[in-house]
Amino acid sequence: MNKMKFYIMTIALSLTAVPVLAASTIKMQVEGLVCAFCGSAIEKKLRSNAATADVLVSLEHKIVALSLKDGQDIADDTLRTQITDAGYQVKKIERVPDTLDSLRAALKGR
Amino acid sequence: MFRFKLPPIRGRRCAVPRGWLAALPLAALSTQAVAGFFIPRDITMFMFTASPDSQMAEVAHGLRANLSVAAGQSRYVSDDGLTERRYTTLQANWLVHRAYGSDGITNAYIYGGPLAARGSEFAGTHSGVHGGFWADHETRRIYARLSTHAYHAAGHTQVVTTAQGLWAPYAADYEDIATWIGLQAERRSGLTDATQITPLLRLFQRRWWVDVGVSVNREHRGDAFVNLMLLF
Q1: Chain B residue with minimal CA distance to A90?
Q2: Which of B43, B138, B209 has the CB atom closest to A34's CB atom?
Q3: A105 at B interface, C-beta within 8 A
Q4: Please, what is the angle between helix A36-47 and helix A76-85, to 10°?
């Protein structure tokens, strides 16, 4: 019986861990994004991270998102510093299961 | 190259000023048009502005989120074409305040530094100082700016005051080419008694920016204005 519980617990934990491990996209709500010329500094900063695969900027939705290379990550503090250095303020950072392409499509469809 | 002035109305100089060509290689200076412009940390910006009465080039680099340094050269000519002033400048630009609103941002900058001046009113090169203030407010559809830049050397003070108001017919997103139309009013005390009024077309996308316009006030009618900026 204990063995059965162990298996169930292990499977349950694995299932909950999957979305976290698969979250290779970081989505940030950024204040002050009004101009692509000024905002391009954000893209440059984020692309300078070795773990960054691609970057998405939406002035309309005040969202900056980046996809991560396989198995890599960037600390929230690093992201916050980079956005601040670019002249903007981060309101929220979240890891989402969407790909950057699906996020881009969703933002355009809103 | 950037001068497509209409035929002169009252015999003002029409040839391409040689000073423009001299200014380009220096590629470093203070420009009234962008002296307070926000340069994010680790970003380098090149800017070039030209009209028949003034030409400027500047290279600026962001050191911190609120501090950048710049080097540049500018040349101003009086309306009668008899007085010319050239300034080679170094400056620090400090973003004093940035307010984040729900739809836009408001910035206030101060800037200043040493300069070297040459001109038709004095012999040789003189050292001096320059500095100014810049405030702007920007949303995705509206832009307003007021700035002033004073130069002092060899007993001469020149103050360039600029106001801009622009409107975007659509709210461009990051990938789009942004289009703005508006008006610039500029006054160069000591060189002209007129306020130069220039309708502007502004286009930019990510790392490039272009302003073009042609002045409409009587004293400067037909004078073309070009402003280019590139980020690296």
Answers
A1: B100
A2: B138
A3: no
A4: 140
CB < 8 Å from B in window 30-59 of A: 31-32, 34-41, 43-45, 57-59
For residue B122, the tally of other CB atoms under 10 A from its CB is 14
What residues contact residue A14 under an 8 Å CB cut-off, 6+ apart? none
Which residues of A fall within a CB distance of 8 Å from B204?
Answer: 35-37
User: Is A101 an 8 Å CB contact of chain B?
Assistant: no
Q: Is A26 on the interface with B (CB under 8 A)?
A: no
What is the distance between the alpha carbons of residues B230 and B207, in angstroms, rounded to a whole number? 6
Radius of gyration of chain B, Cα coordinates, nearest whole angstrom: 17
Residues of B in contact with A31 (CB under 8 A): 100
Question: Which backbone phi and psi does B68 adopt, to 5 degrees?
Answer: -135, 160
**A59-93 exposure pattern, b = at least 16 Cβ within 10 A, e = fewer:** bebbbbbbbbeeeeebeeeebeebbebbbbebeeb
Query: What is the residue extent of each domain of chain A?
Result: 23-109
DSSP-derived secondary structure for B134-151:
EEEEEESSEEEEEEEEEE
Write the single-letter amino acid at A51.
A
Q: What does the pLDDT profile of chain B (232 residues) look like in tens digits?
A: 333 333 333 333 333 344 433 433 333 333 344 444 678 888 999 999 999 999 999 999 999 989 999 999 999 999 888 999 999 999 999 999 999 988 899 999 999 999 999 999 989 999 999 999 999 999 999 999 999 999 999 999 999 999 999 999 999 999 999 999 999 999 998 788 899 999 999 999 989 999 999 999 999 999 999 999 999 9
CATH fold of A23-109: Alpha-Beta Plaits (3.30.70)
φ/ψ of residue A75, rounded to 5? -65, 145
**Pick from B43, B65, B140: CB nearest A34:** B140
**What is the rounded CA–CA span in Å between residue A67 and residue B174?**
17
